[in-house]
Each structure stands twice: as structure tokens, then as C-alpha cells.
Write a structure and sequence with these properties.
The complex is a heterodimer of chains A (138) and B (347). In chain A, 22% of the residues lie in helices and 38% in strands. With 138 residues, chain A is of the alpha+beta class. Chain A has two domains: 1-31; 50-137, Immunoglobulin-like, CATH 2.60.40. Chain A has a four-stranded antiparallel β-sheet with strand order 1-2-3-6. A four-stranded antiparallel β-sheet of chain A has the order 5-4-7-8, with no helix packed on it. In chain A, strand 4 (88-91) and strand 5 (94-98) form a beta hairpin. In chain B, the strands form two sheets. In chain B, strands 1, 2, 3, 4, 5, 9, 10 and 11 form an eight-stranded antiparallel β-sheet that branches. A three-stranded antiparallel β-sheet of chain B has the order 6-7-8, with no helix packed on it. The longest helix of chain B is centred in the middle third of the chain and has 33 residues, at 193-225. Chain B is elongated and about 75 Å long. The chains are: A alpha+beta (138), B alpha+beta (347). Chains A and B meet through helix 1 of A and helix 4, helix 9, helix 10 and helix 11 of B.
């Protein structure tokens, strides 16, 4: 490599590394403080027996269910077009998880959320920043 | 090295390189697929392809950018440098699969053109957290495409080595774009400490290697400027014993980049810059009596800097002498291809 080119490489990396490291730190700094949905991807096997309320919209049916101890869950049956291949589900601004392609998903909501009386369930496409659907319960 | 253009100038080394590369790529894809199926049993085939090709292309680009400084710091990595362009073209192809599947998956079923959708579906350009990270990936892929498309010697010859090299140095910009594509994309969505650690480790390794190699190189050049002189314009190189057989010592004296080779009990000096892609001749070795560039195998005769017929490339040559076992070189260049007597090493 000619010395002039070597020098250009050196300059690029001296300034570029500062920019890259600063950008990396900034990207970590702005990470959302909500829990990662990845941990909640496991399907819930058991459906709670009591249906509190049901909402229908477009190609989605959502049931809010409850067990005898007051724990609650959302059962979502969907036939959404593949326009939304990645849909995140949140309830009262807390991320519950992502919807699977199989058409039926169940998301248990935590104890603190279960104590609340009204819910705003939101389905959104976080990649394109689009809201797919909003449903209010009860 | 060829007098005519051919699609790929295959040789045993390149075939071996590509076989190993293909094997590692296949192994990665297989392992990644099995792990994804184990952890995400409901994953769709499209998502699996997007994830596998995205991570693989990023790892490959990271590795490609590590090869240069690794080879400068330790010559045992030089074989990795030899066929780096095949690695680069493969990286583009894998990245292209990632890009095409992403565009189909996330942008092809709307009312607007998919490429337009990449730019217009998310317009939070002023927000770091919600930044449309796919745009960064798009431009990185565009750079990799330009590099892959012009990787052939035809383009090197017609664009000139200076412009060709400048174009290909855009790979650093592509890497920066991809770092932010990952950091503002999948990292913001999944917030996985594993992926953050993975990107951070790769970034720090790459930056450290480049800065370390640059520092070592600068120190070497500084030491050469303080070399003792013999009179008549000669500068001390080193003891003849310090140059390994069929290898070279490189020097930068009076604006001349010089490689001093030892071979068959003799020492000769030629210009250190290969006429092909300005590769460092002195990092190569003498094979079958010819100096062989480590980058792409271009060859030159050590005593006159000429490529063996029918090739026409030529290097400048320099006078060398040996006094009391020490090698001395005069950095005044002779015209390209000028025969100069080799200095004989006394037994």
C-alpha cells in the first residue's frame, strides 16, 4: 500500500472509531426501558375459564379471560394479512410479546396489570412504526 | 495474473480458499437455523432467512475488515488476504438476500412501491430511537453492490487504481452504516444484551486492530528516517542475516517505498508497490524465482523488477550493497524494469 493510502486509512480509523464508538454508546443509551418481548414468546398452554369480554375488529377477535384467582390473559385469534408480518402486542403501554404466524396467541398479563379495570390493547408494527389496531376493554 | 481478462483466474489456492469459505458459510447457516428452531419453534421461514443472512453478512464484513490489519501485524494471516475479493462478493450476495427478503416481508404488500416504502413507511428521521434503520441497511447494501460489481480487474484498469481504491474504501462507510443499522434496528426491538455485546465486541476488536496496525506502521517509518547513512546516498537496512530467505525488509526512504529481498545468497531491491492494486510487494515472498505479491499473486523478477513474459508490469529498481554483513540501499530509483546487479552475501 502506498504511504499516502496508508495515511488515509489511519485518518479514517482515527476519526471513524470515535464516531462509531460514540454512536454505539448513544444507541445503547436510547434503548427503550420496556421489557424485551423475546422472553415472552413462549405460547401459554392453558386458557383461563371465564371470558370477561370480547372485541372483534377487522380480522381479529380478542377475548379478555380470567381465572378464579383474578389472573387475566388476552386470547387473540387473528387472520391478519402478511402486510404485518411482525406485530407487537402491548397492553396499557406494557409490551406483552409478539404475535405468531399460527393465528392464535395467548398473552398472560402480570399481576399489577390484572388489578386494573380497563385496558387499551394495541397491536403495532414496530419496524414501520404503524399502529395496526387498538381495542379498549371492557 | 493474466494478460487477458477472464471471469475468475482460478488456481489451487483460490479453489481451496473458496471451498473453506463455502464450508464455513454452510456450517454457520446450519447451526444458526438449528438454534433458531430450538429457541423460536414458531419462527417463519422468511424470518429465519432474514435473521440468518443478516447476521452472517455482518460477521463476514467484520472479518473482512479485520484481515488487513491482522496481516500487517502478523504475516501468518497473509493467506487470508490473498482472495479477499471472493469473500467480499459473497458478503454482498448474502447481504442482498437479507435485503430482498426484508423488502418483500415488510414493504411489498402495501400500496406504494416497496423501495419507496423503505424510505417513507417510517419517517422518524429526527429520532435516534425510532430512526428508520432499514434506510441505513439499504445504503450499505448499495455500497457493497458497487464494490462487488467493480471487483474485477477490468474495472481496476479502467477506473485507474487510485479511483478504484477510493471507491472500495467506501467499505468503511458501509460498515459504519451497518453498525447503526443493527444498533438502531434489531437492538432497539429486542434489547438483547447478547446482541449488544456481540456488536460491541466486534466493533472494539476492529477499531483496536486498525489503530494498532497504524501505530506500528508509523513507528516503523519513524525508525527508518533515523537510519545511518554510508555516503553516496546509501542508507543502512539491516544485517543480511536479518532478512529471511525469499522474504523482504521494507523501507520508506526519501519518498521511496522499497522492498529489499534476499534469495539464493543475494540481495536485490525493488519498489514496494505492486502495479496491480498497489499491494505491498515486500509482504510477499519469492516463489519460483519471482517476487509474488501477497494480494493477488502478481509476479516480478527481483533483479530487474520485470514481470516474466508475456506479462508487462514493471517496478523501479534500486542499488544495493553489502558491507561487513550489513545491507545498504540507495533510494534513488532506476526506471521501471532496469536490471541492477544483486549484492552477493559473503559466506
Amino acid at each position: 500500500m502506498v504511504p499516502e493510502l496508508r495515511k488515509r486509512h489511519r485518518r479514517i480509523w482515527q476519526f471513524g472509531s470515535l464516531f462509531l464508538v460514540a454512536g454505539f454508546i448513544a444507541a445503547v443509551w436510547v434503548l427503550p426501558q420496556t421489557p424485551a418481548p423475546g422472553a415472552k414468546l413462549k405460547p401459554v398452554a392453558k386458557l383461563y375459564p371465564q371470558v370477561v369480554s370480547t372485541r372483534r375488529a377487522e380480522a381479529v377477535v380478542v377475548r379478555l379471560r380470567r381465572d378464579e384467582d383474578g389472573h387475566k390473559q388476552f386470547e387473540i385469534l387473528h387472520r391478519l394479512p402478511r402486510k404485518f408480518p411482525f406485530i407487537q402486542v402491548s397492553c396499557n403501554d406494557q409490551i406483552l410479546g409478539t404475535m405468531s404466524p399460527k393465528g392464535v396467541d395467548v398473552f398472560n398479563i402480570g399481576d399489577s396489570l390484572s388489578l386494573q379495570s380497563s385496558y387499551l390493547l394495541k397491536l403495532s408494527d414496530p419496524i414501520n412504526h404503524q399502529t395496526v389496531l387498538k381495542l379498549e376493554f371492557p | 495474473m493474466s494478460v487477458n481478462y477472464t471471469t475468475v483466474q482460478w488456481n489451487r489456492q483460490k479453489r481451496r480458499y473458496d471451498r473453506i469459505m463455502g464450508g464455513i458459510i454452510a456450517l454457520y447457516l446450519l447451526t444458526f437455523t438449528l438454534l433458531q428452531l430450538a429457541f423460536y419453534p414458531l419462527i417463519s421461514p422468511e424470518t429465519l432467512i432474514i435473521r440468518a443472512t443478516g447476521t452472517l453478512a455482518f460477521i463476514m464484513l467484520q472479518f473482512i475488515l479485520c484481515i488487513g490489519p491482522m496481516a500487517r501485524l502478523d504475516h501468518r494471516f497473509l493467506p487470508l488476504l490473498y482472495n479477499r475479493r471472493h469473500l467480499g462478493v459473497s458478503t454482498f450476495l448474502i447481504g442482498a438476500v437479507h435485503g430482498v427478503f426484508n423488502t418483500i416481508q415488510f414493504h411489498s404488500l402495501g400500496y406504494v412501491d416497496p423501495i419507496f416504502s423503505v424510505f417513507a413507511s417510517n419517517t422518524h428521521y429526527g429520532s435516534l430511537q425510532d430512526f428508520p434503520f432499514q434506510v441505513l441497511g439499504f445504503f450499505a447494501l448499495l455500497i457493497l453492490f458497487l464494490m462487488a460489481a467493480t471487483s474485477h480487474d477490468f474495472w481496476l484498469k479502467n477506473l485507474s487504481p487510485r479511483w478504484w481504491k477510493s471507491l472500495h474504501m467506501l467499505v468503511y462507510l458501509a460498515y459504519g452504516l451497518l453498525v447503526f443499522h443493527v444498533m438502531l434496528g434489531v437492538i432497539q426491538l429486542e434489547q438483547s444484551p447478547m446482541w449488544i455485546g456481540f456488536v460491541g465486541f466486534g466493533l472494539l476488536t476492529l477499531v483496536s486492530l486498525h489503530l494498532l496496525a497504524a501505530r506500528v506502521e508509523k513507528k516503523r517509518l519513524q525508525e527508518q528516517m533515523d537510519k545511518p547513512t554510508l555516503g553516496e546516498g546509501y542508507y543502512q537496512v539491516c544485517s543480511a542475516e536479518d532478512i529471511p530467505e525469499n522474504r523482504a525488509k521494507m523501507l520508506y526512504l526519501e519518498g521511496q517505498n522499497i522492498a529489499v529481498f534476499r534469495y539464493d545468497g543475494k540481495v536485490s531491491a525493488v519498489n514496494n508497490i505492486c502495479r496491480h492494486q498497489h499491494g505491498p510487494i515486500g509482504e510477499g515472498k519469492i516463489v519460483d524465482g519471482c517476487i509474488t505479491c501477497p494480494w493477488h499473486g502478481y509476479q516480478y523478477l527481483p533483479q530487474n523488477g520485470q514481470s516474466p513474459p508475456p506479462f508487462t508490469e514493471k517496478l523501479e529498481t534500486y542499488d544495493v550493497k553489502i558491507v561487513d554483513g550489513m545491507v545498504w540501499v540507495n533510494p534513488s530509483p532506476y526506471p521501471e524494469g532496469t536490471e541492477r546487479p544483486a549484492a552477493i552475501i559473503q559466506a
